[in-house]
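The aim of this short unit is practical: by the end, you should be able to scan a pair of folded records and say something sensible about each. We start with the first protein, listed as its amino acid sequence and then its structure tokens.
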Amino acid sequence: MDSNPSAMEVDPQLHEEEEDPFLQFISYAKSVVSPDANEAGGESMGPGWSWTASRILKTCIAYSSGVTSAILLSDISQAWNEQNRSGAPKKQPECISQLKKKNKRGKLPNTVTIDSVYEKKFLPLNGVIEAVIIDVVILPGTNICTLHLGDFWSSNTIDLYLHRRFYNLADPSNGILKKGREVFLTGCRLRTTKGFSSRARLLPTEYLAILLDEDQDDDAMMLGAQFCSDSFSSICFDDVIQGVSYSLYARIESIGALEAQGIFGSLQRKKITLVDNDGARLKFLLWGEQVLLANLFSVGSMLALDRPFIASSAESGLESNEEFCLEYGSGTQLYVVPLIQHKEQVCVALTQSRCQGSKLLTAPDPGQGLPVSQVSLPCDSQGSIDFRNYPFRSFVIDLHDKMTGISLYGDVVDIQSTGDPTFSLKIEDATGSVWARLHFIGPWSIGRVGLGHTVYISGLSCSMTKQKILELSWFENDPGASFVNISCLPALLNSSCLHKFSNLCDLSAHATHTHVCRVWLDQIEYCHVGTRLSHAPCGHFVNEGCNGELKCNFCHCICNDEVVRSFHLRITIADGSAKLLTWCTGHTATELLQITPDEFCELPEEEQIMYPSSLENEKFTVALVKGHGSMDNQSVSWEITRAVKYE
């Protein structure tokens, strides 16, 4: 990714944007958590910009009443230390030490270390343990088999009661589950014992995948002998009905989003697309709790399926050109050859170098006369580079084809919706604007978003269309995908470390981002209070059609059963330096008026008229955005997105 000379043109705007207190705190937190981050050779050992931003926002959401700098720094430091713990013992079992030296794969997104299981005395059901078998033990006087497990990052070990479907693989004479073998586990439940040892054990789980290494002779021979004779095209459905089983070997091309199936959407399903060595494709379906297995897979890895259940596509409710699909049956065994994570040197554009104050890792290029630095980022087999751990903030101007894991911070300047679970938002920062296509599992689920609102989106992917247009896409259920409307974040107004107060007189007609002001309500005689029905999931107003059905102006869907009464308020605010006519709706309007819409409607008409005068000079801390000709209010452009009373 080449540095972009045109970034020079946006430096004044970048400088103005970097004065944003939220952005300043991200930079401050990065420097505090990892003050001696070693960037030599292009390897940044400190937390990435998006990782830090996401942790700050996660804590803000957890503490809606506000956070302090100390709370945020403590949480970030603890999370970073846990993620990058180096607490493994100096002398590990030889089987772990040898494997650790040659391990080149990346951690799976939901990986949990054994140490953290002991510290928290908790293991989430969707947590993944990437384990190495230290020993296989038959409990004395029983036929119960346990695996003694360790991992690359922990000083503790843990025992797993092996599920009986894997007992034949743990046979001492010829079983593959033996000392030194790596396994992935998920769907584990923790059992702790009281007493002197306080030993924790994992209860049996059906969701286990065995890792194979094609560079090891035994594994390569097993793959060749057991999995390379069958292919997708060799499957005969008539033979399947007669009880013939297959062993298949294919690359994981994509892992679909979680789907809701069944009459009431109570059954979960996940589709995984597999491609065999002949280029043929088949869907591998996971149902119900089986969807946890997808946590063990990564796109680009090879999957060996021994005796998958082969089902008719029609019976599985799959709209597909293929006659059949694969499922995880009672006799299925899974083997994974993980994708070796290659890394690529990525040039840091001048945009980041100048505004982030990054250390320059290479000398200036005499040809360009522009200093650049480089970082090493993982890339997949398709050449897409993962920017989740990119040390710096990504700007619109720096987006290129084949980028994944991107995070963007900017303002919403346009919204398009078609009435289905896909919406397009145009996001603008100081360097430009770009359309991002948001794919939801179901209806809109991220609350009210309006024009001018400041948002943070992580988990974006960037690709080039056939028309050579850059396109951003976001899938709600992808690992690392999040959407936070900072303008409506409750903790923003109560966290002095994340904002600075602006005077109303300093707000220009072209102001961007969210401004926090301390104001009072003024000229109540010009206050207009109205109530309308709004669509609860998105917060936008609805209209009644000629047939009496209610249609959301934003989602373009019929929403008769999802409406609530909401204020539509126009009100003047002042702070001594200026006055400003503003508008608001929803929770914010309720906070300013200190009465609910339903309570207001129950008042006699004369009391409704007089009610606003009782609020004159009431003081509030408010978040303000310039709405660029708001969708909900064309005549008043400044919107109060959040308000909290202060004395």
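Turning to the second protein, read its sequence before its tokens, just as you did above.
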Amino acid sequence: MYTAFFGLTEAPFSIVPSARFLFLSDRHREALNHMLAGLADGGGFGLLTGEVGTGKTTVLRALLSKLGEDTQVAVVLNPALSAHELLESICDELGLPASPKDSYKALTDRLYAHLKQNDQAGKHTLLLVDEAQHLLPDVLEQLRLLTNLETDQRKLLKVVLVGQPELQQLLQQPGLRQLAQRITSRYHLLPLTETEVAAYVRFRLEQVGCAQPVFTPAALKTLARVCHGIPRQINLVCDKAMQLACRDSRQQIAPEHIRQASELALGWAVPQPVSTPAAGQRHWRWVIAGLLAPVLVASGYYGAGWLTENKLGVVIQAPAVVDLESGEATPSAETLAARASAEQEKRWQQLLAMQPDERGAMQRLYQLWGYEVTPNLANCLSSQRIGLVCQKREGDLAELSQINRPAVLPLTLEDGTTDYAVLYALWPGEAELMLGDERVRVSRAWLQARWQQQYTLMWRPPMGESSSIRYGQQGSRVAWLDRQLNRLLGEPGGVSRQFDQDVLEKLRRFQRAQGLYPDGIAGPMTLMVLDTALGLPGPVLHQQYRTDAEPAHELGPVAFLPMPKLTTEALPDLIQTGYSPSGDAQPERSASDSTPDDQWPELAETPVEYDSARDSSWDLDNLDLSELSPELASRLHQAISATDQPKGQGPSLIDSHMLEKSARDETQAPAEDELMSVEQLPVRLQKQLPAIDLQTHIYSSSANSRWIKVNGREVYEGDEIAPGLILEQIGPRKVVLDFRNQRFEMAALSQWPAG
């Protein structure tokens, strides 16, 4: 063993639970506090879920250590029991006699008498059920019936169910809805973060007397990535990595040790893609080539050449030449090419087996813009906090090339699964994608065959406002648009704050030049193309450098490239980049533009107080009414037309308070207590609403840990469930949704059929 080599008292990464190695991360502490708070309020059921190896048993042991002598605990570790066997096990744990011959009534009466005795003695009774996802529905119903044992003040038995996420789906069955409604405390345990992984490893080493830093910082980062923050996998990989370092006589563990250890310890856990009948022989050749090509090439068997020629397009002309005296093979150039293509195929299959999801792709997109976000914040809603706009559209590569910003693309693969990639760069005939932690170059034909023309990208709107700029509006955004059009079109004229016919014609000229529909409206697409034309800061697809690599079609469908170094440096301020009319990027004012700067308070870097002496009245003929609804604008026009009295010579017919109230009614969403249910939505919206199946409901006191599973997909607050349907908020027993700017609520674990 490596303990003597590193000077340790014992192996630090044993997977056997031990009180010495009890490490509580922030999320483990939160789960523990959540469970304790739920048990203290006298409620019936508590629920703790988490993926395999995330530390649910650790929280369970910590929970037991926090309970005092006034609590009697019964623990069921093997819940694969019948309802009668469960009652027997509970009686055994509480020290009560029980046998298979006892009836349900006898066992229940015996338990009830014991629970009342504990209550009268001032003691609580707690039942902990581990691996509860294996419980049968009738056993869960028996547990619910046990919680019916109560006095006038409180429940006599409290139950904590601990299990994998499948437990949530089990509790959705209609026959168990009464039990689901009695769960007063829920918590879903997430994996460790990268910082917590490093702290976890250091803690384990300190417990066995390790004084020196065995794992380098780079190794710890690699460890967090390959183990996905799951403590059990961390233990397996660290134990194997220390064995490898001991074998190499290395006192420090490097990233290559972690990668090799993960292949040895976790290789069995990598799922293989499942072929559908429609995939045909082509998909199976990929799998066979990845598994058998290295073995066949090493033995000189010509079969590897057949696989490579038919699958990847590389022709094998001659087998390897073997030196009979030394027994060593001298591979030919064709053999080396086949070996490289087989290794690349294996690497590609391992990448696809990881199934890169949309949340990971959104994290990468934020990184390209210079921001680090956690998985639960990797959504469109978070972009508003950093001055970006998240745009979901349908289009083609020509449109993305015109916008020139990275985008998240859903890819449908041969086996029918959907992976998410970030379009990182575009070249003639080829594209670069970021899939998981890999960067690959593919042909445009390969991408077009798997991409369904949908994309999500982020861009930075001028002055932080992404709404359209159109004819009749006025103000600083119109001035910004006119200034940039003058700059791009070479117009010498001054800058106008009024969107008049002159600005309209310039905008149409720009749209025609860019191949856009010349509607004369500066909508999101026009503003994004304008953003590109101005060369404003942000990541771009048409990069000025190209990483050397073989063309994608030479060695198969993809060519792997080194990942770029992504810096988390926020974008420069709006004023400094040309997104605001006062920025340094604005063109110099022409001599004909005689309007002094002090007449444009909206464009100054600092707010300018309103000067009543300079402007003591409204210019009612030039009010900007474009943001009002047609009804409200019509009423305002009627009010203006109804009065021609000079100022101060009579009462105004425009009631400003009524106007403000009407504007609020038009734009503001209803308050929380005024939320309607889905059944109260207008019939028109009900018919348009897509199907909603709320399958899992995880509520936590921390907003970052809340999520639900809806329509078979995990979503967080701010995510889009379906086109136009946004998950706005997750409450303890309900969710708040937004469909086409209409907010409504639904009960947890409920359903709504389409149409």
